[in-house]
Amino acid sequence: DVGIVNAKEMYHIDDLEEDMLEVCENLVFNKIPEATDDMLERTAYERACIDARKNNRAPPRKPRGRIKNIPRLEFDWDKIPAKPATEPPRPTSDAAQNHTPNPYKNSSLTHEKIMEIRSRSTIPKDAPSGIDWNQDPNLYPPSYPHYVRGRDSLRKHITTLFQSKIAMYDGAMGTMIQNYGKKNKLGEEEYRGERFKGWSCNVKGNNDMLSITMPEVIKGIYKQYLEVGGSNLIGTNTFSSTTIAMADYEMEAYAYELNYAGARLAREACDEVTAKDPTNPRFVCGAIGPTNRTGSISPSVEDASARNVTFDELVETYFEQVVGLVDGGADVLIVETIFDTLNAKAALYAVGEFLEFSGLDIPVFVSGTLVDQSGRTLSGQTGEAFYASIRHAKPMCVGLNCALGAQQMVPFVERLANVVECFMHVYSNAGLPNAMGGYDDTPEDMARYNKVFFENGWLNMVGGCCGSTPPHIKALRELSSNYSPRKLPDVGRPKMWLSGLEDLVVEDVHNHLGLPFLNVGERCNIAGSMKFKKLMMAGDYGAAMDIAKKQVEDGAHVIDINVDDGMLDGVAAMQKFVKIAVTEPEVSKAPFMLDASNFKIVVAGLKWCQGKPIVNSISLKVGEELFKEHATLLKKHGAAAVVMAFDEQGQAATCDEKVRICQRSYKILVEEVKFPPEDIIFDPNVLTIGTGMEEHNNYGVDFIKATKIIKETCPFVKISGGISNLSFGFRGVTKIRESIHSVFLHHAITESGMDVGIVNAKEMYHIDDLEEDMLEVCENLVFNKIPEATDDMLERTAYERACIDARKNNRAPPRKPRGRIKNIPRLEFDWDKIPAKPATEPPRPTSDAAQNHTPNPYKNSSLTHEKIMEIRSRSTIPKDAPSGIDWNQDPNLYPPSYPHYVRGRDSLRKHITTLFQSKIAMYDGAMGTMIQNYGKKNKLGEEEYRGERFKGWSCNVKGNNDMLSITMPEVIKGIYKQYLEVGGSNLIGTNTFSSTTIAMADYEMEAYAYELNYAGARLAREACDEVTAKDPTNPRFVCGAIGPTNRTGSISPSVEDASARNVTFDELVETYFEQVVGLVDGGADVLIVETIFDTLNAKAALYAVGEFLEFSGLDIPVFVSGTLVDQSGRTLSGQTGEAFYASIRHAKPMCVGLNCALGAQQMVPFVERLANVVECFMHVYSNAGLPNAMGGYDDTPEDMARYNKVFFENGWLNMVGGCCGSTPPHIKALRELSSNYSPRKLPDVGRPKMWLSGLEDLVVEDVHNHLGLPFLNVGERCNIAGSMKFKKLMMAGDYGAAMDIAKKQVEDGAHVIDINVDDGMLDGVAAMQKFVKIAVTEPEVSKAPFMLDASNFKIVVAGLKWCQGKPIVNSISLKVGEELFKEHATLLKKHGAAAVVMAFDEQGQAATCDEKVRICQRSYKILVEEVKFPPEDIIFDPNVLTIGTGMEEHNNYGVDFIKATKIIKETCPFVKISGGISNLSFGFRGVTKIRESIHSVFLHHAITESGMDVGIVNA
User: What is the mean pLDDT of the chain?
Assistant: First the structure.
């Protein structure tokens, strides 16, 4: 109940980090033995954190705590059940594999190296020198236990012998010679004998030479061991019979003879004893001693790299010894008393070379010497490491001898018996030496001390070493005969078994992160560590060793050594490094990876490496033959090999290439080289991701996939990689790199079975160490999950760099990037679930005529609106020229059903809908091209353009094609008819592309605009009617062509002033309105706004069309055609095709498409994208290819049809035609091809959505913001009322800096930019116009839609007229009364703007939930039912009001807003809800963290629980 505490410092248990809780519970409840150690480690970490804070350093890495090991991924070949072994592992030679008997006809061994050694023989001519030891095959019976040389396989015989009983080896030769000397004279004279009487140095002690000078003594000793001891095998008196050891006696030249004599005497003794009892054949073991020099140990205390012998010298001396022993009759070769494994490896290399040259199968035994109770050789290896280092030679029997008595050997024999795959032996000393250097164990003692080996079944052969004699061997034989020999261990799947001073089975390894993975330390790599490189260049090997030690301390299982640099002698550096490293126990306890691109360098390292290393690397890059040579050499040295996924064609990058090269390499290595598959490590190339190059993005995935396939198809191999390559593009930020590595390795290891990697173990992260957002961004990058993965990682890298800088400079850390947030689903309402239905026609305008399909009466004389009449009053049409404006037809002219059509009787909207859904309709081709073609055949100069009427015109008019409708009407009408009759066009465009007052100003013909349009349309009308009359089932229609003018509303004509324009929106509307009146009066059926390279011009044209249709009450279908100027897929004013459509769709065009600038080939991707979004019919009329050098067009009709085919095949079009370069034959070719295909199907009609646009389009309902919320961020910083900085810039007229604020808003996550310049001290209209005009020229600003924001409606209208995209206007409300509210809404609808509607009415601002709902519902009813405003374009702002003011009545404002939001959304289908979020926390201004925290809670609930959609925020 009670405790004496410091209450201030107490923690609630929920305050504890999860890992702290675990370590505390383990300690408090004594859950695990390591609990105190874990807490001490954690305490040291927390102290280090305190110090880091005090000293302004980065915090230390948190201890990982107790890691659980992850199981290794298993493959089918991992599940191979172990089977009983029938014999020890055999060498890969054919002789050994096939148990081919040794013929013992050594005279047939004529390899040059063998012959060269024999040629130097010192054997006297009169001495025995025979080298063939084969026996008569019938000498003894042909079954075990008999044995005949040349007939029987010794491998098979020993296998049976060693599995039948514990076989007997001999005892000490030296002890027996000493004993002989005690009873007989055996001094310098006796050693020399007659032959060496005058030898130049003392030879007493050179026991091996007694085989020459006192052969009877040596043979007598052999026979005592055979007869008294009962030895089955005896070792030859050749322990020191190498040129190296004999140098002490200046007898190097006698090495061959010494070995020959020692073996021959043993051979004779064995044969004599065997002859007495052929059921117990005896065998000669050619004894190969260690020499008196060592490859791993320096003879100098000053220089650890000094050696008094080289590997090659050892191989050379051992090879000579082997030749002598075999020639002398040895059955077995035993490499014995190994205190430096490098010497043993040299001996075994020499034996291997001899067996390769001879083709023989001679069993090899190996016997190591552990020098003291440490259980290590003199060169530092454990017994297990010693065995791992030599097992590649496939010895038939391995064991220990010398240095220790049997008592002292017990633990080491046990450990060795647990791992050795072949037979096992021991021949211990007769105890430890006494003070006099003698041995005290009696035969009975020695037998008793060896008993533990027999009882435990650890041995197959036993004998004695120093101090042992034939009676000792006899005692061992008698005792061992009561016990069974060691059973060979079962044979399971092979494993990679490396060694340094200690052994390491790679398949059994887990690293410090619990992963089944071999950490290869990367820091001793000259290419990967600048520090190491500098040390190597400076020759500072001592400091380089410190790096190696640190690698092992930090968790490296293997040390990578790479000194391959152009500025360094790589061979010398590798030799020196390895020679020093093997003398450093803290370094060389780990195996080495010898790493170089130059194979000579790794071989140089191999020859100084006593353990079993890995060589990195070999590959097929050098060609198959050299690859096999390299692999064979590594196999002889017993090294594992990294095999790179390179071949003659280069480096494998894709999954398929990695797999192909590795499978090919595997087949060569395993089937041809006989390389152990478990010693193959494939490196399928870890390549760099996140480079910004798309083709690199999948490199991580390719590696991981390839890893699994390679492991599945190449049994027992390992997979490795240089992990640092993966993240090379992010170097300099360790946290980023190691996080990427962590994700990559976790999946590569646990899911694909990767085994090995070159890593910096200290820096490695466990995948659980990664913050959740870091994990996500890494997974996206490594697995190429999203296109933005590299950008996200670069952003995170910049943040981590900024954190480093902040710590260095003692600044607060920056805000962490949020990374890729999981999107929260949008709250759905009943109206969200309206199922999509098939469309029967394109969206219709809201006019009664369009909604009711009211036929156009074509009685234009009844259109008497003052604005129409005023234009007609200025007509320049001569009184004697045709000027009729009524085009209605007799209702009975043609039958009253489709495909017939009668003007005034039938709805053209309905007719086109049926036509466009029945077939791909045909539009016409280029008027300009046809006029040019006419001019090539007929005179068409300035005079013809002027005609009689304009003969004295004040300026040149040639090139004004539109005026030809007046001056050469027969030419224009003739072109129309060619398109109708030859091309088969269903609709033709009028020759009025430039017939606006603005464009005609170039020819001083502004006054003729009405007439030009009237004349162009009238001629087309006449042509269509004449052609239709010939076939009333195929009526033809006139499209009044409205061109872009030669001025643009969105593009500045001045390089100095981005706000300059040469035309206004109102001027464009005015000119277009006059054009529309002329076209309709001239008989146009359809109005087509075409070749739109600036959408603001199109919006002005559509505004004018809308006005005309409103004034006239007609339903005239409208088509719109945009122009994407190049392969960027954008208009000249910068919009994408989708943004262009979103900007004009409010006008409800019946057909939308693309024309001009590009050929069909170039248009394909943009047509596809447009076809995916357009709700109405679609068309294309492309150019006849791209212009040639002369400005002409080269596509033939057939070419053009072929390039348009993709549109027809994919069902993207309802109408097709041609633009520049196309002619009636082009249109005919299109018609003939398109007739085989169906037209585009209208997309299904679902619930309407708000579709905004800047330079790019944005569907509000599809938006999620940077926090994953279904919410449109409207950037608040360009608001004069909300940003003091922005206000100051606007007051100063600094629009450039103001643009920077706008750009930053978009960069920071604003989807829409709020623009508010409404201030009493500023001309709001002028400021809004200037800001928008500049903003639309800044791509990084205007790619986002705008919110035009002002309390003064004139200011937002001023902005609207310079905005080419579809913006939001903020705001309108009932505060101004119902009539003005409707006026405002109607104007916004005409401009295509979405509208923020405030919850204000004539009584004021809504504060309560009920008031907010009431006003919004009233507004909705007026807007939707009376104004016909699109409900999806309504954004209600129910007023975010300030909470936390201290006034109780304000406390519920947040709740009221959230409640009202839901009710409004439920009762006003398709609307959005917005608010000025900063109002909420106004009382807490000055403390951003507080304000944004309040906003966060408010928005989360308002969005996810009530469906709020939009807000003005600082993203």
Answer: 96
In sequence order, the β-bridge partners of residue 234 are: 284
Beta-strand (E) ranges in 82-172? 167-168
DSSP β-ladder status, 921-922 and 1215-1218: parallel
**Distance from C-alpha of 1125 to C-alpha of 1183, rounded to nearest angstrom:** 12
Residue 670: both structure tokens together = 């395993």
Q: Specify the pLDDT at position 819.
A: 65
- Position 990 scores a pLDDT of 98
Q: Residue 844 and residue 849: Cα distance in Å, rounded?
A: 10
Length of the chain: 1515
Q: In sequence order, what are the residues at sequence separation of 6 or more whose Cβ sits closer than 8 angstroms to the Cβ of residue 1002?
A: 960, 1046
Q: How far apart are CA 742 and CA 759, in angstroms?
A: 11
Instruction: Decide if 581 contacts 342 (C-beta within 8 A).
Output: no
How open is the CA angle 1288-1290-1292, to the nearest 5 degrees?
70
Cα end-to-end distance, the chain, whole Å: 50
Tokens of 1159: 């050929």
Residue 96 C-beta-side C-alpha neighbours within 13 Å = 20
Number of other residues whose CB lies within 10 A of the CB of residue 136: 10
Estimate to the nearest angstrom the gap between the alpha carbon of 1455 and the chain centroid. 47
d(CA 275, CA 249): 37
C-alpha 261/C-alpha 131 separation (Å) is: 11
Q: How much is the CA Rg of the chain, to the nearest whole Å?
A: 48
Phi, psi of 1473 (to 5 degrees): -120, 130
pLDDT digits (tens, 9 = 90+) for 1040-1066: 999 999 999 999 999 999 999 999 999
By the 8 A CB rule, do 429 and 402 touch? yes
pLDDT class of 50 with cuts at 50, 70, 90: very high
Residue 382: left (phi > 0), alpha (psi -120 to 50), or beta?
beta
1463 touches 1409 (CB < 8 A) = yes
- Side-by-side strand order, sheet with 640-644: 718-719, 680-683, 640-644, 614-618, 592-595, 558-561, 518-521, 756-759
Record the tokens describing residue 1376, joined without a space.
Answer: 């101004």
Q: What 3 state SS string does 647-691 have?
A: ECCEECCCHHHHHHHHHHHHHHHHHHHCCCHHHEEEECCCCCCCC
Q: Which residues contact residue 707 at a Cβ distance below 8 angstroms, ignoring those fewer than 6 apart? A: 684, 719, 748, 752, 753, 754
pLDDT at 857: 98
pLDDT tens track for 760-817: 998 999 999 899 899 999 999 999 999 999 999 999 999 999 999 998 888 888 988 7
Q: What angle is formed at CA 70 by the lines to CA 68 and CA 72, rounded to 5 degrees?
A: 150
> Nearest to residue 1089, comparing CAs of 1079, 65, 1246, 968?
1079
Handedness of CA 1335, 1337, 1343, 1345 (dihedral sign): positive
Helices (H), 786-860: 789-808, 848-851
E-assigned strand segments in 1301-1432? 1312-1315, 1346-1349, 1368-1372, 1394-1398, 1400-1401, 1404-1405
Is the per-residue pLDDT at 65 higher than 80?
Answer: no
pLDDT in tens, 1356-1395: 999 999 999 999 999 999 999 999 999 999 999 999 999 9
Q: Chain centroid to CA 1485: how far?
A: 45
Query: Exposed, middle or buried by CB within 10 Å (0-12, 13-18, 19+), for 692?
Result: exposed
How far lies 1444's CA from each of 1282, 1408, 1450, in Å?
20, 16, 7
Tens-place pLDDT, residues 226-266: 999 999 999 999 999 999 999 999 999 999 999 999 999 99
What mean pLDDT is predicted for residues 86-92? 98
Provide the H-helix boundaries in 1215-1365: 1224-1234, 1284-1292, 1295-1307, 1324-1335, 1339-1342, 1353-1360
